[in-house]
Hints:
23% of the residues lie in helices and 29% in strands. By secondary structure, the protein is an alpha+beta fold. The protein is globular, with a radius of gyration of 16 Å.
Amino acid sequence: METPDVDKPFAHRFTCRVIYGDTDNMGMAYHANYFRWFEMGRTEMFRALDLPYREIEARGVFLPVSECQCKFLASARYDDRITIETRIDPGMRAGVQFNYTIYKADDETPLARGYTRHACVDSDGRVIRPPAFLARCIAKTKEQA
């Protein structure tokens, strides 16, 4: 985890490697994999905040993606180590928005920036407000900033 910048919300950082199956025949990461890496970033952020996704779902709350965006800045390539930085947008009132930056781990070159927005729904698929346990988890990110 990085040392938080006082002007930015809490950030979680997770490093992994681009595997061969993530690339096209030119050895560059296929664009859809950036969204997989976003998912890895938010999953590991929740785990670091002591609230794994599995526990959220066990409590009957699901976080389907309602909107996503990715701006590609440079190519990740086979065998690169990448760092996925994930932040929770503190401005969201209903649901949750995660903001991401993916860096080349060796030199911190930004490779992509984006976000995903998630609705909170119950097990019947009805939209709900973030329950207290999830709101407390999100509040932790504000306290740690």
